Amino acid sequence: MPRITRDQVKVPVDVMPEFREAYIENYLKATRETGRLMLFACDQKIEHLNADFYGEGIDESDADPEHLFQIASQGTIGVMAGQRGLIAHYAMDYPEVNYLVKVNSKTNLVKVSQDDPYSPQLHELEAVLAMRDAGVNIVGLGYTIYLGSEYESTMLAEAGELIAEAHANGLIVVLWIYPRGKAVGDREKAPETIAGAAGVAVCLGADFVKVNPPVATEGASSAENLHIASVAAGRCGLVCAGGSKADPREFLSSLYDQIHVGGACGNATGRNIHMRSLDEAVRLTQAISAITLDDASVEDAEAIFNGDARFTL
Q1: Which of 293, 141, 147 lies closest to 229, judged by CA?
Q2: How far apart, in whole angstroms, are the C-alpha atoms of residue 116 and residue 180?
Q3: Structural domain of residue 227, as residue ranges?
Q4: CB–CB of 143/173 below 8 Å?
Q5: For residue 178, which of 241, 122, 103 has the smallest C-alpha distance?
Q6: Fewer CB within 10 A of the end CB, N or C, for the chain?
Q7: 1 — pLDDT class (breaks 50, 70, 90)
Q8: Pick the catalytic residue: 45, 102, 189, 210?
Q9: Cα(first)–Cα(last) distance of the chain, in Å?
């Protein structure tokens, strides 16, 4: 079982001295004192509208936004990521959840064929800090960059400023970096593109970066190609997006390989969890966390998902 102590947390020097202890506390909360991140991504209500929450193959409970918070509360996660307004509506009833506020978002209505993607910043950091000061358990911020978009300069500048301000106030930052746009074309998941995104994240000062798994190439699996990106990320922990709902064993096997072959330090999973019933979703968070936070085997994690074993930290 990987564990880290307070003195093992590498605190960036842009964290102000008076907030150093707050940063350490937030980092340990988000990683469950392991240095690895189990991020429950709940930002799709803007990103994908209602398509991820209602329809064929999706449990009917997912239509209610509170389903996300019930999973986060009853399951085993490190941090729940969602927009500020979503968290503001429900955090009072789920104060124990570690929250990461997604600072920018866009819908999927405008396609790349119409215009390169741009995810606008929805509010200033002060609005997040005000919620934290009011007692909401906010441990960090999240921000999406579409690298290669003609609007990347705006997103890079916004992200850089937010990271500096967030660190100064003791918050951790997770960047979502997706190479996308006409200049990128079909190279969105090419190993060199994903590694490039990881390098951008560490240069901006992020604590973690969420990327899509790179494609397999001749002679190298996706996980083997991911290792290139993990090295490029340096001290910025790299985690992979979970994608849409998939077979649990297939997903858990991929996650295991991403960590133990690809060098990832966790995962960022949303749809594959919340599209399920509450009971099934909770069991899947426990199975994912068993691999991510406790180095469990795929077989042991699958037993947890099937209800044949239990996982507690």
Answers
A1: 147
A2: 8
A3: 6-39+74-269
A4: yes
A5: 241
A6: N
A7: low
A8: 210
A9: 10
Active site residue 182: no
**Beta-ladder partners of 175:** 143, 209
Q: Is residue 56 part of a domain?
A: no
pLDDT tens-digit series, residues 110-136: 999 999 999 999 999 999 999 999 999
Q: Which of 143, 178, 189, 256 is catalytic?
A: 178
Is residue 210 annotated as part of the catalytic site, yes or no? yes
CATH number at residue 86: 3.20.20.70
Residue 257 lies in a domain: yes
**pTM, entire model:** 0.97
Q: Collect all residues with Cβ–Cβ distance below 8 Å to 75 and sequence separation of at least 6.
A: 40, 273, 281, 282, 284, 285, 286
Please state, in angstroms and as integers, the Cα–Cα distance from residue 129 to each residue in 126, 188, 207, following that order.
5, 34, 19
Per the structure, the count of domains in the chain is 1
Place of tokens 């209505």: 109
Q: Would 184 be classed as within a structural domain?
A: yes
CA 228/CA 173 separation, integer angstroms? 22
d(CA 275, CA 70): 13
Single-letter amino acid, residue 174: V
pLDDT above 70: percentage of residues in the chain:
100
Q: Report whether 146 contacts 108 (CB < 8 A).
A: no
Residue 312 has pLDDT above 80, yes or no: no
How do residues 57-113 score in pLDDT, each as one tens digit? Answer: 999 999 999 999 999 999 999 999 999 999 999 999 999 999 999 999 999 999 999
Q: For residue 116, is it within any domain?
A: yes
